[in-house]
Write a structure and sequence with these properties.
By secondary structure, the chain is α+β, with helices and mostly antiparallel strands. 26% of the residues lie in helices and 32% in strands. The chain has one domain: Gcn5-related N-acetyltransferase (GNAT) (Aminopeptidase), CATH 3.40.630.30. It contains 5 helices and 8 strands, in the order H-E-E-H-H-E-E-E-H-E-H-E-E. It is globular and about 35 Å long.
Length: 163
């Protein structure tokens, strides 16, 4: 099921705005996301892409790809600056995955060198589940992380003000 159907089920229109997450139904920012993350664009064609908007400015992009109905999705986030992150935005990001998309788990790949993203992911509730050696074209390794809905710190009322 594509997100268009889910948006219609929720009674929202195609240009639905979820507070600070703006649905990119035309995948206009997916190309930028794919380029910045070094991933092929076709990974996002059947995915769902949202722009992260804060104070009226686009701060980055979050995508859910390889979505399996009532099962799981892979999450990718790319940002322009570190001020994108707030408890409110994280609650919305995980709310889309777990509530709107009905995922029971979400997965992430993070470059082993990206210590700040690994730290943030773990503070949100992700658990390191493995390592993919030489995953990226530049030969760098990636950690595989996963999070079940019950482990998400932003959907259980445990939000922290300073993430």
């Amino acid at each position: 099921m594509r997100l268009n159907g889910i948006i219609q089920e929720l009674g929202l229109n195609r240009e639905a705005v979820l507070s600070e997450l703006v649905y990119d139904g035309k995948l206009q920012t997916a190309r930028l996301l794919a380029q910045k993350l070094g991933l092929p664009m076709d990974e996002f064609v059947d995915g769902f892409v949202f722009n992260i908007v804060r104070d009226g400015l686009c701060m980055g992009t979050v995508a859910y790809n390889d979505y399996r109905v009532n099962d799981s999705a892979w999450i990718s986030i790319w940002t322009l600056n570190k001020k994108w992150c707030s408890a409110k935005i994280l609650k919305q990001i995980f709310g889309v995955a777990f509530d709107a998309l009905k995922c029971r788990r979400i997965n992430a790949l993070i470059c082993c060198d990206n210590l700040s993203s690994i730290s943030l992911a773990k503070r949100c509730g992700f658990v390191e589940e493995g390592k993919m050696h030489a995953y990226y074209q530049n030969g760098k390794d990636a950690y595989v992380l996963g999070m079940l809905r019950d482990d998400c710190k932003f959907l259980k009322g445990k939000e922290k003000k300073n993430v």
